[in-house]
Amino acid sequence: MKEKIIILHGWQSKLYRWQKFKKHLEKNFIVYLPFLPGFQKELKKAFSLDDYVRWLKNYLKKHQIKNPVIIAHSFGGRIAIKYASQGNPLKKLVLIASAGIKPPLSLKKILGWLFSKTGRLFLSLPVLSWFKKPVRRLFYTVLREKDYYYAQGYLRKTMKNILREDLKNQLFKITVPTLVLWGKKDKITPVKDALLIDKRIAKSRLVLLPRGTHRLPFERTSQLVKLITK
Fold first, then answer.
1. How far is 13 from 6, CA to CA, in rounded Å?
2. I need a labelling partner for 152 at 20 to 30 A (CA). Which of 28, 126, 159, 201 fits?
C-alpha cells in the first residue's frame, strides 16, 4: 500500500503552483494538498500556530490519514515543526525552506516598528493622504514584508500571532527522520536557519542546493521529488 503524504504550503501560496510537484509525487505516493485556513476562505477569528496544528489534526482524522509523511514549505514548516514536536503520529518529515526561526532584532525590524507607529499619523495629513497606499506598499516591499502588507483582517492578526512564536527550542523534541531541503540563495529564510534546524533535530539530513532560492518546490521540482522519494 502506498504511503500517504500531506503537503503544507507556504503563506499565500497558490495551489496551482504545486500541481507539478504533486503529480510527480503521485507516481509513488498518495498525496494530499489542502488549502491552509485563511488562504481560500476568510478566517472568522485570528489563528495562532496551535490553531493550525488543531486544524491539521482534524484534517488527518477526517481523511483517515494515520502516521503520514509531511512535506512542508516555508510557513507550512512552522505548522509541521509544532505538530512533530508534540509527538503526534508522523512517519517522516520533510522541511523545505522552513520558517519558524525568529531572527534577532535588526535595523529592518526597528524601521518597521517605527513606521507602524508613526507612519499612519504622518500619512494621514491632508497633503500626504493621496500617497498613503503607494508609500506603504513601497515601504513593506523594501523591508521584504509584502505578505504583511497584503494580509487583511484576521489574516493580518494571524500573521502577527505566528511571527511572535520562536520554534528553536521545539526542534529538539522532533524524533522522526527529517529531510531538510534548502536553497543556498534563499533570501527569505536564510541558510543559517537550515543549519540550526539540522543541528537540533536528532535524525535529520540536510541537503543544500547551490543555486536554489525560496521557490525550491517550483524551480527544482524533479530534483526535490527524487530526494524525497529516495
1. 15
2. 126
